[in-house]
């Protein structure tokens, strides 16, 4: 606009607005994540994902591990019960990893390399934060880090290869993490009596043992409820 002396003046507010717009544009360009419309890819993904916050009625929360050998169904169970979009770190299995890991069925093409994460609210009052551990022995250091602060663990086992579950259960015992066992019933699993399973897994009498199908929501939730009941009983006895 024109000043009183006849010279042209620039509105300082306009200059500030231009500077702000320039700053925002430069910052966005530095991230390298902006598309042609100015929206980030992450925001586009979030638009399609409903956000579910923790209910106001929740009075407590617990960190729960979901452990077991590779291919036992940890990622499936967490994805089945999670009320939020689960986090999964699945990666394609490579020939290099195959030389180190135990053999799995040909249909198994991916594996968890860091963790799985999900959340479920029980009874509107208790939130369980579920952390799925990698099944391979070479990821044991990460496994132990995930165990820090865990109130308990659900150990998944596969009756087609019970021996593969020994390490995971042994790690829980070494870390003194209370746990329950859930036998994931695969379509080609042969039925076994509870006594035979307890004997084969060398479980203590008070350790809960349930049969579940990691693909079914109600079945998987019941397995988690069995664990929570066991944890409450254990804590009550210790107090």
UniProtKB/TrEMBL annotation:
Q: Give a single Pfam family match.
A: ATP_bind_1
Keywords noted in UniProt: GTP-binding, Hydrolase, Nucleotide-binding, Receptor
Q: Where is this region: Disordered?
A: 1-48
Acidic residues biased stretches: 32-48
Compositionally biased intervals (Polar residues): 1-13
Q: Residue ranges under compositional bias (Basic and acidic residues)?
A: 17-30
- By its UniProt entry, which Gene3D superfamilies does this protein fall under? P-loop containing nucleotide triphosphate hydrolases
GO molecular function term, any single one: GTP binding
Q: Does the keyword Hydrolase apply?
A: yes
- What PANTHER family does the annotation carry? ATP/GTP-BINDING PROTEIN-RELATED, GLIDING MOTILITY PROTEIN MGLA
Q: Which family does it belong to?
A: Belongs to the GPN-loop GTPase family.
Identify this protein by name. Answer: Signal recognition particle receptor subunit beta, a GTPase
């Amino acid at each position: 606009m024109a000043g009183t002396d006849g010279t042209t003046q620039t509105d300082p507010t306009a200059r500030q607005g231009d500077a702000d717009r320039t700053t925002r544009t430069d910052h966005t360009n530095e991230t390298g994540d902006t598309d042609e419309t100015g929206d980030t890819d992450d925001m586009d993904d979030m638009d399609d994902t409903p956000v579910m916050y923790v209910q106001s009625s929740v009075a407590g929360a617990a960190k729960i591990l979901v452990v077991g050998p590779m291919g036992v169904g940890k990622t499936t169970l967490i994805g089945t019960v999670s009320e939020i979009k689960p986090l999964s770190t699945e990666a394609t299995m490579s020939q290099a990893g195959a030389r180190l890991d135990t053999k799995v069925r040909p249909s198994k093409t991916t594996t968890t390399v860091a963790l799985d994460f999900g959340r479920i609210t029980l009874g509107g009052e208790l939130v369980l934060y579920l952390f799925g551990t990698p099944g391979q022995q070479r990821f044991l250091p990460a496994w132990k880090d995930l165990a820090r602060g865990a109130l308990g663990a659900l150990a998944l086992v596969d009756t087609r290869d019970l021996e593969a579950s020994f390490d995971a259960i042994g790690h829980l015992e070494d870390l003194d993490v209370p746990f329950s066992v859930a036998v994931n019933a695969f379509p080609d699993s042969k039925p076994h009596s509870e006594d035979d399973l307890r004997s084969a897994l060398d479980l203590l009498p008070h350790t809960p043992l349930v049969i579940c199908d990691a693909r079914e929501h109600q079945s998987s939730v019941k397995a988690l409820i069995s664990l929570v009941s066991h944890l409450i009983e254990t804590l009550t006895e210790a107090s």
